[in-house]
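Notebook entry, structure prediction.
Reason for the run: the old model in the group folder had no record of what sequence produced it. Starting over properly, with the input documented here first.
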Amino acid sequence: MAEIRPFRALRFNTEKAGEIGELVCPPYDIISEEQRLGYLSRNPNNIIRLELPKGDDPYNEASATLNSWLEQGILAQDKEEGIYIYEEEFTVNGLHTSFKGCIVRVKLEEFSKGIVLPHEETLSKAKEDRFNLMKATDCNFSQIYSLYMDPQHFITKKLDELSEGEPVYEISDNDGVTHRLWIVTDKAETEAISAAFADKKLYIADGHHRYETALNYRNYCRENNKGTGAEDYVMMMLVDMEHPGLVVLPTHRLVRGLADFDSEKLIEGCREFFDVTEKSDVSTAEADLKVLYDEGKKAFAYYDGGEGYTLLVLRNVDALAKLLPEKSAASQGLDVTVLHTLVLEKILGIDAENMAKQINLTYVKQFDDAISSVRDGEAQCAFILNPTKVTEIRDVAAAGEKMPQKSTYFYPKLITGLVMNRF
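New structure, fully documented this time:
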């Protein structure tokens, strides 16, 4: 099963680089150009120069920057192998919580082996970008985020014991999330943690593109006799799937630019499979959906403007079994599968390729942004969703299947720049 190892992380030398809080950044794919420039204006040594390089030759620029920082001592590799315990503490939707895991090297395995399991489709453009960056720098600058099953929670308890002291880093970001890092180098402890993963599968929560890129990079090294063996592993953050601090947020759907869009026809078409109820106040949509979510029902809020919205509640999940007999029950029962199959494809004619290319369908995380997009005329309508359950992610991955893109949004994102993995 999963093979994990401690490693000598590459980290910022804060005596030369500056304060750690000025050197880290969120994941590259959620950073705007304005934000990127803001990080660099605060400290030119910010990790964004390596993780999201710009210019005419961005990948070689990142390579040159990495080599320069190594020569100057801005970056330095830890002298001892260790496991890096990472915690995020945050408040979301009025709930104050935290989760903790460990950053390690994980041996790369093809998905077909059933050891590391994906749950979401990927885009080829993103994989090409990450591959070019990895090939130029021979480094992971950010960790993949994966989950594991541990019914006795031995690993989490061990991590809690090993992180009772003061952290090496403790910083708060612009979203009010506090990040802490501890380093464990005691060989007996690292071996005990490694051994605890020997019977476990890993479920990728965030970072599918990076994992597939790491497989491609490993194969590239083998084909070109470039490898040292380190490329057989990739840096991951591993968290107990039943950790009480895990939070998955929904990603809402926006329809735009659809020819002959007819809202009344859409609602009428929904009556075949859904109980349709008109609601007077769209501001209650999230709370209304939460009640149905807790009852285990499949429901969506449909909004096409005005003060109210339309509540759609699936009458019978068996409808998906008839339409998607090739899919597992886990996939058939997903909210996103229900919405995509019965509404977006069947009624609106937005097929999977259209969704993948985001021609008539786009995605937004914030409820207010979804509503504003419709009111401002940017979108023709919005579908407000409940979040995907972590257990649903596990079951779909275990069935060897993948969810549609943008099915899950783990919050908060892991910060980039605390530790790096150099091959």
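Summary: The two ends are 23 Å apart (CA to CA).
The old model has been moved to the deprecated folder.
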